[in-house]
Amino acid sequence: MQSEADLEALYRKRASRRWRDRVLRLLQPPDPFIMNSAEPKDFPLGRWNLYIGGAGRAVEGYVNVDLIAMPGVDVAADAEHLPFPAGIFQRVECDAVLEHVRNPTEVMCEIRRVLAPGGYAHLVTPFCHPFHEYPKDFRRFTLDGLKQLAGPMEIVAEGWRTGPTATLLVITIEYVKLLLPFRTWRGIAHLICGWLLFPLRYVDLLLLRSPGTQRIGNHCYVWFRKLK
Predict the structure, then answer these.
(1) Which end of the chain is more exposed for a tag (fewer CB within 10 A), N or C?
(2) What is the pTM of this model?
């Protein structure tokens, strides 16, 4: 089980400028998934926009909120209790966060509260994806389960961000690592398998068009619009 201190150490290592950490980052294989180009990205931004769970990444144009106060995070807060007035944000991004919170319904209530009328919320969650603690991992969502969180908001777009091949590749890599007894061996296996398998990710360019993707898709997304 990861603590918040473990998570902070992980984020800081990703940004570390020590030569050893930079070499390890250079050795990392490409992601074992390819993004769905049909996922909408062009809903309007406003003067104020909110990114929930953006520790360890640059989110220009957004107020970046995460549990941990570290470089890049503008406000350290729990997503179930956002410290902002109602109706202030034109757009809210919540990317791979809801699986880590204790009460996703409460987080959705907070997102609706801080959205301005006419504003948009973009949610992305895993479906078929390995267990990962940041700092905990509570659940997975089908596309129907994610849409159920809409409440009074309008659903304006839905689909799959990463497809069945991504599921196959990430599970294969984790399965191989599970067979090995030592952390160093698992790290080496991650590098080797990642480099060998990543070209297969392009099969999802075809499979993401299939309605059968919902059976073993990797991550799904929904765009909501606050009506009033």
Answers:
(1) C
(2) 0.89
